[in-house]
Specification:
Phosphatase 2c, domain 1, 6-stranded antiparallel beta sheet, 247 residues
């Protein structure tokens, strides 16, 4: 087992809620400050399949990344873990017709000393707040976001589109999948947000920036984000995980 010998001290807190409209919560999260692993997943699929996929993804990825070899570079270990988790979820669905088509998004932050990597599959997002300015690090793998990037749709049209829930990449729905990986340098005071789209569909980036700038304990800040998303409609499950790099 490999414990992270971090030069930067990290603290973290997370919260999840089924929202005001859904009957169950298909989001899942996991984190280990000691191992530098932080994950949020948003499941999809009929019946309870989405809940199964997200929970299996978190369990597999946490196990594999916490037990990675001492000599294994973190980005390579993450790639191997994503491949293994994808195969496990895909095989599980193939063996159980009730779970056919299940999958999950993934957004993760992996830290090692003063370096970090953010990775994602799907439309769960990762942000960094630095110096009071919020930056979205990840890129959504969704049909409308791809159309916005190609100039075929503007952001306002994307918000209204009936296709905005269609994602173009997920963990477990295909035999293979590739995560986008974003190397990051860490500065003291950086605050990272990993979240499912139940948060970002309800709260604008401007509001997130304002709320994340509040001088509050991370667990209280998580609760406020969840409460604000529910007050704005709570149309989907809501999960947020906050990670702060200490001075």
């Amino acid at each position: 087992m490999r414990l992270s010998s971090t030069a930067v001290h990290y603290s973290a807190a997370a919260c999840t809620d089924r929202g005001r409209k859904r009957l169950s919560n298909e989001d899942a999260f996991g984190f280990s400050v000691d191992h530098g692993v932080f994950l949020v997943c948003d499941g999809m699929g009929g019946a309870a399949a989405g809940e199964v996929a997200s929970a299996q993804a978190v369990d597999e990825l946490m196990r594999l990344l916490k037990d990675r070899a001492e000599s294994a570079p973190l980005p390579e270990a993450a790639e191997q873990a994503v491949t293994a988790a994808n195969e496990a979820i895909f095989t599980h669905a193939e063996q159980n017709p009730r779970l056919s088509g299940m999958g999950t998004t993934l957004v993760a932050l992996l830290t090692d000393a003063d370096r970090a990597w953010m990775l994602n599959i799907g439309d769960s997002r990762g942000y960094r707040l630095r110096g009071g300015k919020l930056e979205q690090i990840t890129v959504d793998h969704s049909l409308v976001d791809e159309q916005v990037r190609s100039g075929r749709m503007n952001p306002a049209e994307a918000q209204r589109s009936p296709l905005r829930n269609v994602i173009t990449r997920a963990l477990g729905t295909q035999p293979t999948v590739t995560a986008d990986v974003f190397p990051l340098e860490i500065a003291p005071g950086d605050l990272f947000l990993l979240c499912s789209d139940g948060l970002t569909r309800e709260l604008s980036d401007e509001l997130l920036e304002s709320m994340l700038g509040l001088d509050l304990p991370l667990d209280e800040l998580c609760g406020r984000l969840i409460g604000a998303a529910n007050k704005a409609g709570g149309h989907d499950n809501i999960t947020c995980l906050l990670i702060r790099a200490g001075d």
